[in-house]
Amino acid sequence: xxxxxxILTDFFQAADRALxxxxxxxxxxxxxxxLLHVRRDSLLDPERFTGELTxxxxxxxxLAFKSLAHDLPVPVVAEVGHGRLAEAVADAVGRHQxxxxxxxxxxxxxxxxxxxxxxxxELLRAAxxxxxxVPHSVAAGALPRRVLLAVDAEDFSLGAHAGMVRxxxxxxxxxxxxxxxxxxxxxxxxxxxxxxTGLAVDLPAVRIQSLVxxxxxxxxxxxxxxxxxxxxxLIARPxxxxxxxxxxxxxxxxxxxxLLPVLVLPAH
Length: 268
Fold this sequence. Notes:
The protein is built from nine helices and ten strands. The chain is an alpha/beta fold and 268 residues long.
């Protein structure tokens, strides 16, 4: 199964960490890399409020790509997009049909949530696609095998993405733990919802635990400790990113504060 990973880069450290992480994932997934830099020259780009946009000329971008691609152990294609990030990524997704969109998360802990970029959420709205967000503090090392999948008891489907996610978990020999956010009485329904997607096929026995917590996002962050897990997986239902207050959603909060890489799977 040949797949592509679309990695976004602005040539900052966080993007470099995301690239390293993707390079580590590529061999077991049998993946090639598509490296995308977007010249974000739209006056409406929300990142302008943080002052963190690069403004490199064509030659500087070419040299930066050459430096990044030097001696990479997997095939890589480099592209430049223009305009707003979500639109450029949606165009690249349409052309390359990547298994994952991979991006880095900068250190934003000192910035109020209301001012932090909602780039990942914008991408989910513009091109609902499995997305892997890698915190700036995470270095590529061992493959992420200890996987924490956070769910509630509601049924869900991953649609056309289900096969890719099964391949991802199987190729990594994932040890899957289902974290059910809710009362233990609903554990069986939560596990059944995951089982129906086929995500646990060919994996070791799935563990499940329930957590009753005032804030679901804080509960997930509490359990997702780096010494216990390597990766957090969220199911982003439409209400998680189609609303008026995106920064209040569980998905957005976990993406901003998780110490672990977060894989977001858009539900259908």
